[in-house]
Amino acid sequence: MEKFKYFMPAETFFGRGCVLNNKEAFLALGRKAMLVTGRSSAKKNGAQKDVTEALDTLNIPWVLFDEIGENPDVETVERAAKLAVSQEVDFLIGIGGGSPMDASKAIAVLAANPDRSSDILFTEAKAMALPVAEIPTTAGTGSEVTQFSIMTLHEKRTKSAIMPKIFAKVSFLDSKYMDTLSPKVTNNTAVDALSHLIESYLSVNANFISEKIVEIGLSLFKECIPALKARNYTAEDRDKLMLASALGGVAIAQTSTSIPHCLGYFLTYEKGIPHGRANGLVTQAYLELFPKEDKKVAQLLHSLGMKSTEEMGDFLNDVLETSETFTVEEITYYTDRAMENTQKIATFPYAAKKADIYKIFEKSLLS
Ligand code: NAP
Ligand code: FE
Questions:
Q1: Which of 13, 96, 150, 297 could form a disulfide with 18 if both were Cys (CB 3.0 to 4.6 A apart)?
Q2: Which domains does the chain have, with CATH numbers?
Q3: Could you tell me the distance, in angstroms and rounded to a whole number, from the CA of residue 114 to the centre of ligand 1?
């Protein structure tokens, strides 16, 4: 059997009520917390209330930073880190979709290095960080179990992972927080989870364990397909989506993501297309870049109960209700920019060239 490495150190609680039922886990993280959330959803879905109730019961003081927007930028996490330092916070709790969870990781680095500029995020892989807990309210990004924190970089007109690898010390996965999610955000984020499962499985970095994890994730995802199409989700569907998302996160924590994420970042930066949706737009054409006889693509489609890449495309068009339009100039620019991300392009097992990347954009966005 091949050699491989597996690492996912986040203690993870899954199930309804898991924050309050396991609140003692916060005691090991520090003495004063900063909650990192988006502007409103954490207040509406009950997650913020559960966390503050847990902290108040444990006599852990806390402050709130609730200004994280979608696809957070470095400027925002700098502001939050200043508040964390001035308030002498010694741990962070990210509550929300990937944006607040990722932001909490970057804030953890900046707050642990108050004398350094934010350049440290992109220059020092070994930078220290405050401890972080994560509570996902979308399913989704899997950030609660990955080491990644994706920041928007305006000067580079794209998004990029910070260099320090920040795993949560503890994650709480309670899908009841997703009950307030609109069908649109549910489906866009579910496609992100699916793209993690797909890209991890087909990556050159895939290994025995990551593949098995993906296979479980895909079988859970398959069971949610009718709900995603009907835009009507039971509590059991929400549980399955949250678990499939976390398994996708565990898988990319081993392999990283691949070409769809690399391409999707430009669609998000330049056109404001939500992250999961951006990946989904290019997924069928990415799968069609593999040779027809590739056994892993066939296995992957089979795990989802699909017979062809066309069926995958139809599913994605259905659940995403795709309608965006693009120009040749735009996709030419995205192709040039995507080729700069040699690391992600290199995860494709058959050496993708510039013409291949252009073809993915052309098939996905021009026809
Ligand atoms: P998001 O940007 O975190 O949230 C999208 C929208 O959903 C926001 O308007 C948010 O409102 C709302 N929302 C969140 N939870 C809700 C709930 N339970 N009910 C109602 N509305 C809710 O979206 P996301 O797709 O989860 O995260 C995307 C980010 O994660 C991107 O920056 C992406 O690059 C990153 N990402 C990270 C990883 C990783 O491994 N770390 C992997 C993939 C993607 P509020 O703003 O009010 O909260
Ligand atoms: Fe993603």
A1: 13
A2: 11-177 (3.40.50.1970), 181-365 (1.20.1090.10)
A3: 27
Instruction: Give the residue carrying structure tokens 């999707």.
Output: 264
Which single residue is written with the structure tokens 């309210």? 137
CA separation for the pair 150, 252 (Å, rounded)? 13
What is the Cα–Cα distance from 305 to 295, expressed in whole angstroms?
Answer: 15
The set of protein residues with a Cβ atom below 6 angstroms from ligand 1 is 38-42, 45, 70-71, 96-99, 102, 137-138, 140-143, 146, 148-150, 159, 177-178, 180-181, 185, 189, 192, 249, 275-276
Query: Which numbered atom of ligand 1 lies nearest the CA of 261?
Result: 43
Residues listed for the chain? 367
